[in-house]
Write a structure and sequence with these properties.
Number of helices of chain A: 2
Distance between the termini of chain A: 35 Å
Number of helices of chain B: 6
Strand content of chain A: over 45%
Largest sheet of chain A: 8 strands, antiparallel, barrel
CATH class of chain A: Mainly Beta
CATH topology of chain A: Lipocalin
Radius of gyration of chain B: 42 Å
Strand order of the largest sheet of chain A: 1-3-4-5-6-7-8-11
Order of helices and strands of chain B: HEEEEEEEEHHHHH
Number of strands of chain A: 11
Number of strands of chain B: 8
Largest sheet of chain B: 4 strands, mixed
Largest interface: A-B, 47 and 44 residues
Radius of gyration of chain A: 19 Å
CATH architecture of chain A: Beta Barrel
Order of helices and strands of chain A: HEEEEHEEEEEEE
Distance between the termini of chain B: 89 Å
Strand content of chain B: 15-25%
CATH superfamily of chain A: Lipid/polyisoprenoid-binding, YceI-like
Structural class of chain A: alpha+beta
Oligomer: heterodimer
Number of domains of chain B: 2
Number of domains of chain A: 1
């Protein structure tokens, strides 16, 4: 019964929310890629992402961009090698675009389609789940993008003639702040 | 008539009647029109926008495009609730619902918001665009460092052999053949070492990057094995000359063994320091 009332109220409120323009700014972020090899696991972290979101007429458009060279694995030589294999000299940014209806934003688990541009290639990841939590006035989004090297035509680097795994999941932690 | 056959005929008549009724009903339902203008946030017309019109009950769906003045028109629609999705290059997709009455002309104007751009994030076009030159520099650097790595590993083989033969070359009971073998292996090590060092020293530097992590140890150790690789053969040549004259190795040449051991140890440590990286 309670659920039904909430649903009915949501439906009543929806037209009002849908047409109210709102903007979001990415305040803080931690993006972590994870590379697996038979002999070793490596992680690279970036806090340099920039992002913005605009909701208009019930539709939201989010754009996030992060420089490839901002990922730090703790070893400059490895980071430069990563920059080279991912063609970061020619394509210095990774961009992620998300378009979703505004009613899909304020839920605990957001399932979104991601449009990722990386290494000069574009790949759509469908229905990726992100967890959403409120932290004061900010909204914290966490989740993992199941990125693979082959999606972006990246030749896997090798260690002792063994290539790293194709799967390079990217853990995302973002704090979004609504603009007033 | 057989009662079973009669039942079948009756059923068929009902079905036929229902079908005949449904045909004019559908024909009557169709004929509604949805039209409108597609504009951007400033009110300017958006031509060539793709308009997908879909009956939400899973029935009719059609697609059309806005004309040069941003107008679209979808005809011959049956009554019902439709979802209209409008998308255009450079704009965020907008979806709205309209209810179409039988035979009515429904207007549904759609305003498209522009998608966010990198400039909206404060990223200049210079930051967003890389260059083939930068990539070529990175490729050259990686290629040269790969050669450095391979030659460095290969050089370790004659280095170990040189150390192994040193016991026959420098001890009390030495032979000329042992000394020559030691000299030849040492020379091969030196050649490979300096070729390998060339690729590391002359690999292009990437502006704005500072050494971090294991590579710092690797570079620091080069300050030990580099001078060692120069000094060791000089001291070895003096020692070789003294031995060839039947003299005991003396003076500065007596440091040859110690310098060689420190050099080889630093070289081995340098290899290990970067062996466990991608």
């Amino acid at each position: 019964m309670k659920t039904k009332i909430t649903l009915a109220l949501s439906l009543l409120l929806f037209p009002t929310l849908a047409h109210a323009d709102s903007q979001w700014t990415l305040e803080e972020s931690t993006l972590t890629y994870h590379v697996s090899h038979a002999l070793k696991q490596t992680e690279g972290v970036s806090h340099a992402a920039k992002g913005k979101g605009v909701c208009h007429a019930g539709q939201c458009d989010f754009l996030i961009a992060v420089p490839v060279k901002s990922f730090d694995s703790g070893d400059s030589n490895r980071d430069l090698h990563m920059l080279q294999v991912t063609r970061g000299g020619q394509f210095p940014l990774i961009t992620v675009r998300v378009q979703l209806p505004e009613y899909a934003v304020p839920v605990a688990t957001i399932e979104v389609d991601l449009d990722v541009q990386f290494a000069g290639q574009t790949k759509d990841y469908k229905q990726i789940a992100f967890q959403r939590a409120e932290k004061g006035s900010d909204t914290v989004i966490t989740g993992t993008i199941p990125l693979t090297l082959s999606d972006f035509r990246i030749d896997p680097p090798t260690l002792l003639a063994l290539p790293v795994k194709n799967e390079v999941p990217v853990r995302v932690e973002m704090k979004w702040r609504p603009e007033k | 008539m057989n009662p079973k056959v009669a039942k079948l005929v009756f059923g068929a008549r009902i079905l036929l009647f229902a079908f005949l009724l449904s045909v004019p009903s559908q024909a009557q339902d169709a004929g509604a029109t949805v039209s409108g203008a597609i504009t951007d946030a400033s009110g300017a017309a958006v031509p060539n926008a793709k308009i997908s019109i879909k009956n939400v009950s899973g029935g009719q769906s059609t697609e059309t495009q806005s004309d040069s003045s941003g107008h679209y028109n979808a005809t011959d629609l049956a009554a019902g609730v439709y979802e209209i999705a409008v998308s255009a290059e450079g704009y965020s997709t907008n979806i709205l619902k309209v209810t179409v009455a039988v035979g009515a002309s429904q207007t549904a104007d759609v305003k498209l918001a522009g998608v966010l751009s990198l400039q909206d994030l404060g990223i200049s076009s210079g930051e967003a665009q890389g260059s083939p030159t930068d990539q070529a520099r990175l490729n050259k650097r990686s290629h040269m460092l790969m050669l450095h790595q391979r030659l460095g590993l290969i050089a370790a083989v004659p280095l170990i052999a040189t150390v192994a033969t040193s016991f026959g070359a420098g001890g009390r009971s030495t032979s000329t053949a042992d000394r020559w073998a030691h000299l030849a292996l040492g020379s091969a090590t030196g050649d490979l070492y300096f070729t390998s060092a060339y690729f590391a020293i002359f690999a292009p530097k990437i502006p704005g990057t500072h050494s971090r992590g294991q590579i710092r140890v690797h570079k620091a150790l080069a300050w030990i094995h580099g001078p060692g690789m120069i000094l060791t053969p000089i001291l070895g040549a003096i020692a070789f000359d003294q031995k060839s004259k039947g003299e005991k190795v003396h003076g500065i040449a007596s440091a040859h063994g110690a310098v060689a051991i420190v050099t080889a140890a630093a070289y081995g440590a340098a290899i290990i320091s970067v062996s466990f990286k991608f």
